[in-house]
Amino acid sequence: MLFNGNKTFDREVIAGIAGHLGGTRVAWDLFLEEDFRLRLNGMDRWQGDGVIADFDDPAVVRALSGCTVPVVGVGGSYGNEDAYPPGVPYVATDNFKLVKLARDHLIDVGLQRFAMFSLPEAQESRWAQERECAFRTLMAEDRMEAEIFRGCETSAASWDAAVQGQIDWLRSLPKPVGVIAVTDARARQLLQACAIAGISVPEQVALIGIDNDPLVRMLTRIPLSSVIQGAHEMGRTAAHLLEQMLHGVRLSNTRILVPPAGINVLASSRFQAVKHPHVMRACHYIRQYACQGIKTHQVAEYVGVSRSSLEVYFRQELGCSVHDMILKSKLEAAKAGLESGERSIADVALGCGFTSTQYMHLVFKRELGCTPRAWRDRALGERTAA
């Protein structure tokens, strides 16, 4: 298996391959680097029986061009048929449907302006350019201009300039706007840029990524909405194809497009048309700092109005109190923390600003009709079933 385990997409594909092996009588001995990194040195001397590989990486495609054992490619879909590798069975994530699902979601929450945050053009990120093409096509169908910003590559040396470029681009966009980022990692950068620039999310910029990466969710102040790729299904499908090839079935030009599995909708894209500037500013502050245990009076101080006035504005605009909004933000963060399955319930409660595990338990029972443990178990069960 030639994949980079530091990428969420690759990890999910590997998990799908493992799911196929666990659900069948196939007994494969797998070669995968101990640190789950993709290395091609010595591949020409490898004595294995078959390969499943990340064909988004041009170096992998070149390294396997003369391979004499069965190979199954996994990667992004292409609008141009000639871009697919010839003679190789190929399992693709449907880039068009990924972008369409994200845009449809932004339309459903009431937005009318859209933009995309992509990556600099490179052979290694052809999938990002395909997502740009999908966005352009969708915008052209509605006779709208496709606003796309690629920004800079991520590096320590260029970080300050990269963030300033993102801020300048965000400020130039008419508001409110829905932004689709080609990955969760790019979406996280924009969330930081919005926080630095004082741009309200999602009131001014509603943001959605692609990958549903649990690590990225832990690194954002505002819970990030994301399209869930069907990477598990891709891994299972690729393993099934290789199994058939090992039994002599010819599948040289087989091509399977796997649609997205859905959307994990969180706070970053839950747009509401908020008109009052004090409410917009307060919501922006709450989404960033709710989990730090802020109180209503602190929100009012940040906005620069009295507590009673802010409560009136909230009731008029949102039909709830400032405290309700703080609690809702903490609950969203807690749900995301539990769904990752990587922290204990007590750690989630503490990290999301609840005074105790018992209080979080009471809030879950009142607001969601279940306990935090039941919520986590259900989320993890759905992920395993998928």
From TrEMBL:
Top-rank taxon: Bacteria
Transmembrane segments: none
PROSITE patterns: HTH_ARAC_FAMILY_2
Pfam families in the cross-refs: HTH_18, PBP1_XylR, Peripla_BP_3
Domain HTH araC/xylS-type: start-end pairs: 280-378
InterPro entries linked: Homeodomain-like_sf, HTH_AraC, LacI/GalR-like_sensor, Peripla_BP_I, XylR_PBP1
Gene3D superfamilies in the cross-refs: 3.40.50.2300, Homeodomain-like
Keywords linked to the UniProt accession: DNA-binding, Transcription, Transcription regulation
Protein name: Helix-turn-helix domain-containing protein
Origin species: Massilia cellulosiltytica
